[in-house]
User: Fold these one by one.
Assistant:
Number 1:
Amino acid sequence: MRNLLVTGGAGFIGSNFVRYLLDKYPDYRVVVYDKLTYAGNLDNLLDIQDDPRYTFVRGDICDVARVEAVVQEYDIDAIVNFAAETHVDRSLMQPGSFIQTDVYGTYVLLEAARKFGLERVHQVSTDEVYGQVLEGASLETDPLITRSPYSASKAAGDLMCLAYFTSFGVPVTITRGSNNIGPYQYPEKAVPLFITNAIDDIPLPLYGDGRQMRDYQYVLDHCEGIDVVLHQGVPGEIYNLGTSVETENIVMARLILDLLGKPHSLIQHVTDRPGHDRRYSLNCDKIAALGWRSRHSFEEALEKTVRWYVDNEWWWRKIKTGEYWEYYRRQYEGR
Ligand code: NAD
Ligand code: TYD
């Protein structure tokens, strides 16, 4: 594997992964293929834009002809697929784009891999495909009991990957990661939304009682886990990636306010998200056997993340303008 196609590489995790790959593997060439939706942002890749090993191509993973042309032109060996619609709240407003990108788009990449005999398709998936887990922790073999259009679309993408492995021998691997936090996360997701609101003394909209639990992991830990599976994972297999420590949203919100020296009174309870999954939890024994475990505790990850947003207002202030606030109003007004 030398020539990697990183789809969705201009998004949050994808851009962190590209930077990580170029640092770690001096002989790799990385082609980022990204549609640049509202969540895609070339600012995320600004510091590597002059690296001769990196190329950016704007395109949609649903565009068969363009995907095939890029795979051929750059002599691609493997695809790492981050491209997706990713925000649960948006999936409740507009499910169609999730089905299109997360299901059909995944199929297009699998077909290209099959047609050109690629060495690997790695699918970046999520703990949300297991559905809420009120007790215990999800194993890779657990059933997928999804409850939101986002998680249902991601689950369908995963199942299509496994179908292509079984039916056509396409060498796929899948990772199911827990919630990521860190640099370059679009500030509509809870953690960067809360941090940037708190900096500006705007209330933090906490859904329901705020007692929902997530396993928040540092994005570079997740990238490292994806790298381990890409290079050592067994085709046809799924690997959970998380810290196995869950935190309540209200605890996360209070910690952000403490780190920024802001009052807890900025927390504003708002009407809960419909179908809100109460808790996710991953059993990560399988990936531990390959030598990976998350390096940052939740507190360390959150502290680094808060510091990055404090130091990089140039990045998020540009985003939190016109279209962003239109979405914000639609999402939070009257709640
Ligand atoms: P993101 O929303 O920040 O980025 C998604 C990227 O995909 C954007 O750059 C966007 O422009 C691009 N994209 C969207 N539709 C596309 C299409 N049709 N064709 C080409 N590009 C397209 O997402 P993220 O948080 O970086 O998540 C990346 C992947 O990781 C997703 O597959 C997501 O399901 C998965 N994941 C995310 C988390 C998390 O906490 N953020 C956790 C586990 C798994
Ligand atoms: P989010 O970042 O949207 O990730 P996901 O729903 O995919 O886990 O949300 C993380 C948690 O924070 C989730 O339990 C929903 C909650 N949340 C809020 O309380 N308020 C908000 O404004 C948002 C966006 C999320």
Number 2:
Amino acid sequence: MSQLDPHGREQWKTRSGFMLAAMGSAIGLGNIWKFPYITGENGGAAFIIVYLVCIALIGIPIMLAEFSIGRKTQKDAIGSFQELTPGKPWFVTGLFGVVAAFLILSFYGVVAGWALSYTTKAMNGELLSIPAEQMGDHFGGFIGTSLSPILWQLLFMFIVIVIVVKGIKEGIEKWNKILMPTLGVLLLILVIRSVTLPGAGDGISFLFSPDFSALSTEAVLVALGHAFFSLSLGMGTMITYGSYLPKNVNLPTASVGISLADTGFALFAGLAIFPAVFAFGMDPGAGPGLIFITLPAVFELMPFGQFFSVLFFLLISVAALTSAISILEVPVAYFIRKFGWTRQKATWILGTIIFLFGIPSSLSLGAWSGFTIFGLNFFDAVDFLASNILLPLGGLLTALFVGWALKPKQATEMADLSESTIGKLWIFALRFVAPVLIVFVLLFVTKIIQF
Ligand code: PHE
């Protein structure tokens, strides 16, 4: 593969490096923290089926659209729209993306900081010495403290910055090549441990035997929103990663492969968690506290629990790291092109601003919890605005852009598809299926916040 593209930007060194980086972006807190708890809250297997349908009908087509835009233009999330439709307002799609990247990374860093802190608590034995019934208070107490979670968030953001500063090949690609296989091995060990526990069967059937009566409209919308978040879509991440691609990578194959890896990882994370939760008679619907409260209590009951708890929190920290890298790269790529900044300058400045913006999110779980926006604390408000409004909106505009603003011939060529049946189905998905479903989500969202 060539080293530099015509604009003098870096390119991925290898195809596998690109695939691992894109998988690293997709596989993150969404897979290990959010997917299991929303599955638990929304009734298990039936929810998973709806989620899989969303991935296939909307996720994969939009991922392919993002890669096509990025690779064609070799530009960042905003520049790519300007290049394809000069003088038209489509670039706002990328602008939403850059804003969403700021917002998401600000609170993502907070949760990743918790995971880092729990890794050390697991290592030094502190975590498993807490009586199970006090695990919730311990977690609440920790995230409600002012200073400590912010220092962990700072450490996490520092690691993210140090990797992104090194650039595409020597930073992002190199680290994903080390971290992603590690992640796979960690998860495999945890799955084997979990499914071989006595009583694991109930957890497995919770995941795989659907009860459609447990499914609500809201669950369908949660599934769609999460499909975006989990595949890193609607934010320009895959446009940006796609912009470092040479022409000789087949985009449809890459999109399907990355989506399968992401979904497989979420299901495996479920298999690492629920069989263990059921085996020890815990509540699968514990919500966001599932992995920080329920699981440590599960590890206490398990032989060699400390060892597995260290592996588990390390797994979450590493998964969060490879995703955070891809989020920071979105504004970094934009600022380098637009303002002529060096990568060093862009990464340090933007990384620092994002860290600072995350501080109120962290504080809103303790000292600042009295401050609310539309009834939500700062953390939840930022998450809600970014994940439930900006990402679906970004995805909607991306689908409309490729489906309607580009000619089908041009679009299918950019995506390595001819105007064959698959090409036509792809355009149809972008023109109609994805927009209609996303509009439903957005309408529903405006209904539940009740301005
Ligand atoms: N996909 C990541 C996860 O599942 C989060 C993410 C969202 C990353 C949007 C990039 C862009 O945790």
Number 3:
Amino acid sequence: MIAGIELGGTKTVVAIGSAEGRVIEEFRFPTTLPEETLGVAIDWLRERGQPASIGVAAFGPIGIVSNRENYGKILETTKAGWAGFSLVGCLASAFPNARIVLDTDVNAAALAEAGIGAGAGLQDIAYITIGTGIGGGILSGGRLVHGALHPEFGHLKVPRMPGDEFPGVCPFHGDCLEGLASGPSIAARWGTPAHELPADHPAWDTQAWYLAHGILALLAIVSPSRVIVGGGVCQAEGLHGKINAKLTGIAAGYFPPVLGGGYVVPPALGQQAGICGALLLALS
Ligand code: ADP
Ligand code: ZN
């Protein structure tokens, strides 16, 4: 039995999957306190058998480098009750014979999109989510990038759009990319939540400015052939096209797209990217 768990800030998904990483059966429920949330997932799995392998796609920051002391633990977070919780420890004591493979939610989504989604067959892609926060997962040469901790694309500093004096909403940095372009920043800046803003609202040019500058840094450093941009905010009509146009302008002739259609594309797996990624981790 192959199992996957996607642990999100607001909801958790647990699933059993096929040898190809497809969901056979899944259960979605709200993320509450750590023991309670993991308890629900563990009970659901136990009712179905003993998993041989469990892939876990988790919100961060989290220790994902296997030889480090913080491996498997949720690190400093503003999410009440979760800091220091050992996800891997909890699952290993419930399923002592299972292999447990942990990665970030965005790395798992990148793996899924590269395996069976919008980047199918590609070895070098980035997956970015623009939702309550901003995060990025990177597949480079077919391998997920971990680094010493893991990349934190959302906390990149980006140049200010001329005339923009919005202070930003990141509790740590104020005006990092997440502070200037996440869903909560849109609501704070314009006084209207992102999903209620019309397609011709100036908010979308501001979004395209900041996201294009963040993505330019990504192209300059890791050189993906596709940048898959998902998350709630990217459901806004026409946003991917606006980001591509801005990116082409600020790249000024550098980074010609290596594939047709520009670098920035929407995800193909939508809501399933994280859980499919968790199953692919279990199979990796
Ligand atoms: P989370 O990061 O918690 O998983 P989501 O990825 O679902 O959250 O993103 C939530 C954000 O997406 C909210 O700020 C919401 O206003 C915004 N959003 C949801 N639907 C749309 C839409 N159709 N167009 C633009 N923004 C949207
Ligand atoms: Zn920040």
